[in-house]
């Protein structure tokens, strides 16, 4: 069964079809833009993740260097204290030895 559309309505249907095609093309364009934005966001997230990893590594290195400096400082203080203690002990022993004689 063949349905014929009266000529008076053909231009209305064509106009409606053109409008629908125009809307469809806009939607396709919007989807392409969204896909592009999504890809850019994914790339930015990867870059941010890489930056965070690098930052964490730098912090770890700074903590190690800081710990090493603290250890060296403590070691230097211990040596200084020991040298001072040994000096005082030597003076004390010398004094006691002199008193005993």
Shape: rod-shaped
- Helix proportion range: over 70%
The DSSP helix count reads: 1
Compute the CA-based radius of gyration.
43 Å
- Give the SSE string: H
Find the structural class using helix and strand composition.
Answer: mainly alpha
Biggest sheet record: none
Mean pLDDT: 91
- Low-pLDDT ranges: none
Please state roughly what percent of the residues sit in beta strands, choosing from under 5%, 5-15%, 15-25%, 25-35%, 35-45% or over 45%: under 5%
Number of DSSP strand runs: 0
What is the end-to-end distance? Answer: 140 Å
Please tell me about this protein's structure.
93% of the residues lie in helices and 0% in strands. It has one helix and no strands. It has one helix at residues 7-100. The radius of gyration is 43 Å and the shape is rod-shaped. The model has no long low-confidence stretch (mean pLDDT 91).
Quick structural overview:
By secondary structure, this protein is mainly α. The protein has one helix at residues 7-100.
Furnish the topology, listing elements before pairings.
Layout: H1 7-100
